Amino acid sequence: MTTTTTPSDLGARWAGDPGADRAPTPVRTPPEGAHALVVGATGITGSALVRQLLDAGWRTTGLSRRRPADDRAAHVAADLTSRASLEEALADLRPTHVFVGAWARQDTEAENIRVNGGMVRDLLAVLGPQGSVRHVALVTGLKHYLGPFEAYGQGEMPDTPFLEDAERLPVDNFYYAQEDELFAAADAHEFTWSVHRSHTVVGHAVGNAMNMAATLGAYAGIQRRLGRPFVFPGSRAQWDGVVDVTDADLLADHQLWAATTPAAADTAFNVVDGDVVRWRRLWPRLAEHLGVEPQGPRDEPQPLEEQMAGAEGVWADLVAEHGLAEPDLARVASWWHTDADLGRPFEVVADMTRSRLLGYTGWVSTERALLRQVDAYRAERLVP
């Protein structure tokens, strides 16, 4: 397998444009006979990965309820919570590389473990005996260090930046359950694995639970329509502290790098852009870009889930006025997830030393990438 850096659109623009938002994107050429299966192919992480795989010449199949937007990919539909459905959909598929980026939020962490751990277990129980799998990549996140929703940020946590070799927290966590199912299947079926712990993912998706760019774009449109300021809804700790995020394209590239780099096998990695930002500096830039008046945080967080309660009527007006493509506000904005990201009362940053020591050099300018993504949503008439 060879990895070459070619002047892709982003790379060429970056090379001659100091305003570009990322380093040149390498082409991760497929190993001999490679067939990639992307689980969660229409999500914010999976859609970016499908696009990169296809652009690099991989035979690619997406597993999701709906077909991926990129119709170059083959598609299988299956219920990830049903072993029988997986057996029927994946019979004789024989992928060589499996990328798992799907999860389903449940009401309790016990249910998160049962459902999301079960997804990984059943998926690999179906694919493993086919004997074709060489590598499985699993996307999780920084709740590995912060704890699950039920105990988020509670108790004693590792100091920042979060290090990949930190001990697990002494609480139930569906990320741990997913990892354990991955490790067990890798031992049983003799494939390599990688775990990719992302922070807040910024990318392109509709109907996704983790979509800060679209959420803030919708918030700004509603506030502008109502003549209200663009108030930072989170905590003063998030406003004043440094934070990092994860660009979806960078996360996709990192998965392909780990899947095709022998030295990266059987390793868990943090994956973030490579820079840090402060919301007190970024928020006015974002507000200017969106045409709203910025305001800093109040004494207490002002959750978007509360501020935007009942905003569906305003959104309907915006849809009519701007000809927006998605009339269902809930498919554009995930208020609760952005509240969790911006409301934390402590600083959150992740260390990427493992990747750097193994030669991974990808990085993204968070500010420029966020503004670029907002522009992309506007161009597609998803936010006003």
UniProtKB/TrEMBL annotation:
<dbReference type="Pfam" id="PF22917">
    <property type="entry name" value="PRISE"/>
</dbReference>
<feature type="domain" description="PRISE-like Rossmann-fold">
    <location>
        <begin position="67"/>
        <end position="326"/>
    </location>
</feature>
<feature type="region of interest" description="Disordered">
    <location>
        <begin position="1"/>
        <end position="29"/>
    </location>
</feature>
<dbReference type="InterPro" id="IPR055222">
    <property type="entry name" value="PRISE-like_Rossmann-fold"/>
</dbReference>
<protein>
    <submittedName>
        <fullName>SDR family oxidoreductase</fullName>
    </submittedName>
</protein>
<dbReference type="InterPro" id="IPR036291">
    <property type="entry name" value="NAD(P)-bd_dom_sf"/>
</dbReference>
